[in-house]
Amino acid sequence: MKILVVDDSRSVRRIMGGMLSKMGHEIFEAEHGKEALEQLKAHPDIGLLMLDWNMPVMNGMELLEAMKKGRDEGPRPTIVMCTTENEMSKIVHAMTKGANEYIMKPFTKEILEEKLGILGIHGEDNGA
């Protein structure tokens, strides 16, 4: 599956991308929401978005809003928020804006695999 990792931290993008790549996925990266929109247009077959909340230029919630407005442009990828934001009200807000799942940073490969499994997304080394 093609996965877009959106985070302003290069190290987070590399770590998360490495975990997902080892699971057999093709990884794309974006530093902020505007760059993510460009990647989604260039690669409309991206199936999963791993999205940080707090980023410059366009944050994760602004990206969710922009994607909601552009729904007629094709299928929307599954969205997993990956953030340090852990207040229940913020989690609920992200889910109502279009996130499918939520992972709190920091997380392990096992947590990532578990959350993706809940969404029916599996890598080559764990059953798909």
Query: And the CATH topology?
Result: Rossmann fold
Query: Can you tell me the overall shape?
Result: globular
End-to-end distance, in Å? 10 Å
Uncertain stretches of 5 or more adjacent residues: none
Using DSSP, what is the number of strands? Answer: 5
CATH architecture: 3-Layer(aba) Sandwich
The CATH homologous superfamily is named Response regulator
Q: Kindly state the mean pLDDT as a whole number? A: 89
Q: What is the H/E string? A: EHEHEHEHEH
Q: What's the tally of helices? A: 5
Q: What share of the residues does DSSP label as strand, in percent? A: 15-25%
Profile the largest sheet.
Answer: 5 strands, parallel
Q: What is the SS-derived class?
A: alpha/beta
CATH class, named Alpha Beta
- CA radius of gyration is 13 Å
User: What is the count of distinct domains?
Assistant: 1
Which strand order does the major sheet show? 2-1-3-4-5
Roughly what percent helix? 40-55%
Outline of the structure:
By secondary structure, the chain is of the alpha/beta class. The chain has five helices and five strands, in the order βαβαβαβαβα. The protein has helices at 10-22, 33-42, 60-69, 88-96, 109-118, and strands at residues 2-6, 26-30, 48-51, 78-83, 101-104.
Can you describe what's shown?
- By secondary structure, this protein is an alpha/beta fold.
- It has one domain: Response regulator (Rossmann fold).
- 41% of the residues lie in helices and 19% in strands.
- It contains five helices and five strands.
- The protein has a five-stranded parallel β-sheet with strand order 2-1-3-4-5, with helices on both faces.
- Strand 1, helix 1 and strand 2 form a beta-alpha-beta unit.
- Helix 2 packs across helix 3.
- The longest helix has 13 residues.
- The protein is globular, with a radius of gyration of 13 Å.
- The mean pLDDT is 89.
